[in-house]
Amino acid sequence: MLGGQEIFEGEEVEIRSPWDQSLVGTVKQASRNHAIEAVRLLDESFAATRKLASYQRKQILEGVAAKIAAQRYDLTQLIVAEAGKPLKAAQVEVERAILTFTTAAEETTRDSGEVLPLDLLGGNEGRWGIVRRFPAGPVFAVTPFNFPLNLVAHKVAPAVAAGCPVLLKPAPQTPFSSLKLGDFLIEAGWPPEAIALMPLANEDTEFLLEHEDRLKVFSFTGSAKVGWALKQKAAKKRVLLELGGNAAVIVHSDWPDLAAAAQKTVIAGTSYAGQSCISVQRVYVERPAFDEFLKHAIQHVGTLVMGDPANEATDVGPVIRRSDAERIESWIDEARAAGATVLTGGSREGSLVEPTLLTATRSPMKVLDEEVFAPVIVIEPYDDFEAVIGEVNRSRYGLQAGLFTRDAGRIFRAYETLDVGGLIVGDTPTWRLDPMPYGGVKDSGLGREGIRYAIEEMTERKLLVMAI
Predict the structure, then answer these.
(1) Is the pLDDT of residue 379 over 90?
(2) CB neighbour class for 93 (10 Å; exposed up to 12, middle 13-18, buried from 19)
(3) Which of 38, 103, 240, 288 is deepest in the core (most CB within 10 A)?
């Protein structure tokens, strides 16, 4: 989509279902010239979008939320088809996208700025200051396949709330949800020239980062390897990175309901086949509770339904590509050959990977140290709380962590010392509500998403000093 119009020139790309390889549809690959023209239009449109009143931006965002709500069934089916996401997870994603746009609409009325007293030294009587935020300029956003509607919403909605035009490159496997969202945005009143949604080659993405100074903000969600490499090419742009992880859960033996904790953990590690950057991957259970927790976890894995994502009963569908399934299988086999114990699962059929529980793992097994991005969970015992915090921190990732304990002292020690962007107590690190600040440290990223926090990343503070 360029200037509100479909791109009619360019290589035609087929998008096929991860489940059965049926044709979902075709899209045109945008050229570098298309991208440069999009940047020109965005730059020109910024003069208009930066002047949109708060109520106008609010109405546009509310209009998009209403359109998503009105077409929630069709959007759910689209996510199932292009992403292979199980139906019930796709339904949740659509509801979250509604919340994302609704919250962004509310945020347009909340940035009231601040007044500063500046008469703090003699001779400065009568001086005071105002600080307000102003849109930084056109935003270049890149999104992944795993939340093809809501992660696009997390780029577009804050940009609109801030008054910034957007060029968005969706994941090549899942372009249709974002294209639909672009239509909603224009129908709701956003200037057509201020939104461009285009499948782009990776080399053209790099070209824009290196050569287009008119793009002021780069917001990327995806793998750590790609994100940090692109940051090096972003020159003077403001950069926001939401990258990968291998999220950990600590379960202390004082938790009163180990069965519920195990169930939550298994669901959080296998939902959408574990294809989330905060999917549970590592679980550390205090030794007195280890055997009971393991028993409940294995039992719950046995209740999961695998198969067709369009089936309402399905819990675990296919991973996005067969090559990913083969890679996951090889990581499990490598761990088993190096001494790990497969408690349940461990096999693959096509793009379906069995929910897998492992124990007796150790570094440098990939299932422990890397981001597996699969329905694979490592469960290990621990004896010392301080030591297990160190084990969690040993990872080069630091997105979110979960903690099951009733002890306030342990909660605050974990909060102070875990190297993560967020700690979830009484639940798993996979829990996320869209308005909250979301992001990580170390290789997991830079900056924060969550609507208000993303708006801050896309705006510049400006000071006005008055001497009267």
Answers:
(1) yes
(2) buried
(3) 38
CA distance 350 to 320: 11
The pTM score is 0.94
Helix (H, G, I), strand (E, B) or coil at 79: helix
Tokens of 294: 């393991």
Helices 258-270, 287-301: axis angle to 10 degrees equals 50
Q: Are strands 441-442 and 397-398 parallel, antiparallel or unpaired?
A: antiparallel
Pairing of strands 352-353, 348-349: antiparallel
Single-letter code of the amino acid located at 14: E
Q: How far apart are alpha carbons 104 and 143 in whole angstroms?
A: 18
Among residues 128, 130, 111, the alpha carbon closest in space to that of 119 is found at 128
Note if the bond before 364 is cis, omega within 30 degrees.
yes
Residue type, 129: G
Closest CA to 400 of 250, 230, 220, 240: 250
Q: 329-350: per-residue pLDDT in tens?
A: 999 999 999 999 999 999 999 9
Q: Which residues of 374-412 are buried (b: 16+ CB within 10 A; e: fewer)?
A: bbbbbbbbbeebeebbebbeebebbbbbbbbbeeeebbe
End-to-end CA distance of the chain: 51
3-state class (DSSP) for residue 281: strand
CB-count burial class (<10 Å; 0-12, 13-18, 19+) for 364: exposed
Q: Is 270 helix (H, G, I), strand (E, B) or coil?
A: helix
> Active-site residue numbers?
242, 277
Per-residue pLDDT reduced to its tens digit, 64-80: 999 999 999 999 999 99
User: Cα-flanking dihedrals φ and ψ of residue 130, to 5°?
Assistant: -120, 135
Give residue 437's identity as a one-letter amino acid code.
P
Residue 128: beta bridge partners?
117, 466
Q: Which two tokens stand for residue 21?
A: 């390889």
Structure tokens at 337: 């050959």
Strand partners for 141: 168, 219
Q: Quick check: 242 pLDDT over 70? A: yes
Alpha helices in 17-134 (DSSP H): 32-49, 54-70, 72-83, 87-107
Inter-CA distances, 268 with 95, 265, 354, 429, Å: 18, 5, 15, 8
Distance of CA 344 to the CA centre of its chain: 29
pLDDT at site 70: 98
How does residue 143 score in pLDDT terms, banded at 50, 70 and 90? Answer: very high
């999220």: which residue's tokens? 247
The pLDDT assigned to 123 comes to 85
Q: Is residue 365 helix, strand or coil?
A: coil
- CA–CA separation, 169 vs 36, rounded Å? 13
- Residue 240 pairs in a beta bridge with 219
